[in-house]
Amino acid sequence: MRTEIQSILNKLGIKADNAAFSTGSVWGGDANAKSLESYSPVDGKIIASAKVATAEDYELIVKKSQEAFKHWRTIPAPKRGEIVRQFGDALRANKDALGTLVSYEMGKSLQEGFGEVQEMIDICDFAVGLSRQLYGLTMHSERPNHRMYEQWHPLGPVGIISAFNFPVAVWSWNTALALVCGNVCIWKPSEKTPLTAVSCQHIIAQVFKDNNIPEGVCNLIIGDKEVGEWMTNDVRVPLISATGSTRMGKAVAAAVGARLGKSLLELGGNNAIIISADADLDMSLIGAVFGAVGTAGQRCTSTRRLIIHEDVYDAFAAKLVKAYGQIRIGDPLDQNNHVGPLIDTDAVANYLNSIEKCKAEGGNFLVEGGVLEGADYASGCYVRPCIAEVENDFKIVQHETFAPILYLIKYKTLDEAIALQNGVPQGLSSAIMTLNLREAEQFLSSTGSDCGIANVNIGTSGAEIGGAFGGEKETGGGRESGSDAWRAYMRRQTNTINYSNTLPLAQGIKFDL
Ligand code: UN1
């Protein structure tokens, strides 16, 4: 392991990185359970190994969390917010260390690793304010001397299933909101990024300990698909918030739906930017290239398609090809590089397979893909971002490939462009680049983009935490992070109070004894 990473682990106080679960300060697991290894895609080395949780471990976690919930929900929301504020401060103190570890374990550029931790800090700040704003409405009762209002109560243990691509930020979006709402959390991180999860658990557990909060409020459980299935099938976990592929989300929705639980799904995207004839092409270039190659195309918000007006198509395609020639691929911890590796060699195989399929369907590659070879790329996970001219209805274009493959599609009219943009099964993020007000407003209207996120003169990725994050159709319909996404983490209760000295019935019904 690199020495800088070892010193980061020391700084984060990680000693028990082989444990299968943590309820706070206590780490545990069956020593004979099978291990899960965390490989860095940066150099292919094993960074750590973690035990996989057993069914007994899981039981213990759920029981602890139920116990902790009884106490946590009684702490006033602003006091819970104060603890989240301290968590945000702990993240500030550890931003460099955690951001570097994210970059090393997941492979995103160091800048994006720091950005990910910044998102965590931002959501903590948001949640602190929110802890004084968990508003319900008041209504006028139809009966005299009656008062009607609604209030929001916590749900209980919230199951958080997160993906490798944002190994820590998406957990924190869920956790910060769930905590101020009075819930406790059980986190199953991606099996590809257990070490960053262990680090976060160390950081947050210390905050709880410093505040004398009994353990079990934030729990970590490491494991594979089976652990996720225990959670999704468990009536004791009223809400499952899951981030990942559409295939995974359908399984989660079916299992949680079968027990009438709540699920919050943030699944695949197939995000497009429309580049209008009235676009600022230089600005569009930055949005398109960052959107397509940032995080090596492994964001759910990554730009996968560019829908370009025929009048600017050739000029913009030429700019793109030139820009792709300048992209530096390599060690993401070296800030001179723009693009790091894919998460693992399976992802590389998937990338190559998608390129083959695209060619078989008639895709014309303006920038060829391929796997980089040589000592600097020994992990076998470094690939070239590529660009192909395609038709929107190619099967491969309809599918989300989690890799830096950018598809170009030509259009004539804005109606056609919007139909193309909407003409995929997914509905997460979308954008239009235009200086034409009419075009921008049409794109944002009810006949425009069908996505959860629709931007003007901004790319598809890099959303701020203040807005609700998520999308429609196969993206799953969930909303996390800002705006009123907190409501998903609470149950609503309507209260009607009679302070009169009679008991009138609603709807004017007479019932005299
Ligand atoms: C994800 O890829 O799952 O909007 C989350 C963005 C980031 C979050 C992405 N703020 O690109």
Describe the structure.
- The protein is α/β, with parallel strands linked by helices and 513 residues long.
- It has 15 helices and 23 strands.
- It has two domains: 3-267 and 476-492, Aldehyde Dehydrogenase, Chain A, domain 1 (3-Layer(aba) Sandwich), CATH 3.40.605.10; 271-465, 3-Layer(aba) Sandwich (Aldehyde Dehydrogenase, Chain A, domain 2).
- A hairpin with a 4-residue loop joins strand 1 (21-22) and strand 2.
- The protein is globular and about 80 Å long.
- The protein starts with a helix and ends in a 15-residue tail after the last strand.
- 54% of the residues are buried.
- The model has no long low-confidence stretch (mean pLDDT 96).
- Bound molecules: 2-aminohexanedioic acid (UN1).
Task: Using the coordinates above, name the CATH class of the largest domain.
Answer: Alpha Beta
Low-pLDDT regions: none
Share of helical residues: 25-40%
Strand content: 15-25%
* Separate helix tally: 15
Give the strand line-up of the largest sheet. 2-1-9-8-7-10-11
Number of strands: 23
**CATH second-level architecture of the largest domain:** 3-Layer(aba) Sandwich
Backbone shape = globular
CATH superfamily of the largest domain: Aldehyde Dehydrogenase, Chain A, domain 1
Main β-sheet: number of strands, strand sense, barrel status? 7 strands, mixed
- Residue-averaged pLDDT: 96
Q: How many discrete domains? A: 2
Spatial gap, N to C terminus: 81 Å
Overall structural class, as computed from helix and strand content, comes to alpha/beta
Rg calc: 24 Å
Query: Bound compounds, please?
Result: 2-aminohexanedioic acid
CATH topology of the largest domain: Aldehyde Dehydrogenase, Chain A, domain 1
Domain Aldehyde dehydrogenase: 32-494
Protein name: aldehyde dehydrogenase (NAD(+))
Active site: 266
Keywords: NAD, Oxidoreductase
